[in-house]
Amino acid sequence: MRKILIILCVFVSALSNATVALYPNGKYAQKKVTLTPYPAEKATNTGIAVIVCPGGSYCWLDMRTEGEETAQWLQSQGINAFVLRYRVAEISAYCVGYRVIGLGSKYPNMVRDAEAALAYVYTHASDYGVDSTLIGVMGFSAGGHLTMASYIYNQSPYKPAFLCPIYPVVTMKRPNEHHRSRRGALGIWGQWSRKMQDSLSIEKHIPHDCPPVFLVNCEDDPVVKYQNSIMLDSALTKQCIPHTYIRYKTGGHGFGGSDTKGTSESQQWKKEFIQWISNFKQERK
């Protein structure tokens, strides 16, 4: 009997993490867009849900550190996590530049994917014990840009209640742009369009109704210039958006939800987030 119970528990666990195809009847590129749930245990479920957007310069996705490890940490804290595999340019497309003659996966594809993920979590909230007023988005690097874009450029009725960009790409404009992310998002020719650069520079488009934001980065980030987060902080302040901005001196880039990457200083962000989201939930009551 004990063996049967163990087998059943493993089976249920596997089902709970079953990957969801967000476009089951879509085209080839759309069929690769998935959402993997990491539901909280019933006894510790806070009712909070976070859609996790891994980074990767809009050219690939760090599904391990910024995806799975982050989701497992959130899950351990009673937070329902959903890792989004969204459309990106792919490494081959980035290297050979096939998008000179084809559309490929670039803006607005990734934003539409975030919308689809939000729609799924909202419409299945009761299945996971999620409070529909506590559904947010968290992303890293280019995924942090997508986190903000999931509200700013959202054309659906399903909007995130909070946003958590971690060491995010923010601007597409010189001198602080991240070249790879700009190319991945805008394409071969679009990356040079001033109109497109302006349209996807988050700091230029913070709306008055932007939800609360939890923002983190490090001054020694060797990949995305730390000024990106300063620009976002300033834009949020200008619009009087409630937000918390934490800037660490050390930690670099790409530490995600890892317990070993980054520094002991930057690893504090997870504790800070749990306190922040707990306060957010209390304020919503």
N/C terminus separation = 43 Å
- Shape, please? globular
Helix and strand string, N-terminal first?
HEHEEHEHHHEHEHHEHEH
Summarize the amount of helix as a percent range: 40-55%
Structural class: alpha/beta
Number of contiguous helices:
11
| Oligomer classification | single chain
Strand content: 5-15%
The strands making up the biggest β-sheet line up spatially as 1-2-4-3-5-6-7-8
Description of the structure:
The protein contains 11 helices and 8 strands. The protein is α/β, with parallel strands linked by helices and 285 residues long. It has an 8-stranded mixed β-sheet, with helices on both faces. Helix 5 (109-123) crosses helix 7. The radius of gyration is 18 Å and the shape is globular. The model is unreliable at 1-15 and 99-103 (pLDDT under 50).
Produce a short descriptive summary:
With 285 residues, the protein is α/β, with parallel strands linked by helices. Helix content is 40%, strand content 14%.
